[in-house]
Amino acid sequence: MDSLFLLASFESALAQAMRYMSLLAYAVAFILIIGAGWAWRSGRPDEAKATLLGAVVIALAAVIASALFSAGGLPTVNIGR
User: Fold this and answer.
1) Closest CA to 58 of 26, 23, 16
2) Nearest-CA neighbor of 11 among 70, 77, 58?
3) pTM reported for the whole predicted model
4) pLDDT per residue rounded down to tens, the chain (81 residues)
5) Domains of the chain: which residue ranges?
6) Calpha distance 39→10 (Å, rounded)
7) Cβ within 8 Å of residue 66, ≥6 positions away
8) Spatial contact of 1 and 20, defined as CB atoms under 8 Å apart
């Protein structure tokens, strides 16, 4: 019975860590979007498009990873509230 409690607490700790990592990824994506706007304004549209695409991928990294794990039949951790 004690091992079930440890497993549950580990899963909740992992979910909390994933939430914080997702928040950090959102902050990085926000900074990249600002950088893409700056590159577009400076006359570098190719760099702006690549930076914007990178920001979208980083912002959706948790959703993409969860979808891949679910498609593969692997257990996932719910990071939503």
Assistant:
1) 26
2) 77
3) 0.71
4) 455 556 567 777 777 888 888 889 999 999 999 999 999 999 999 999 999 999 999 988 878 877 887 788 776 766 665
5) 2-71
6) 43
7) 76, 79
8) no
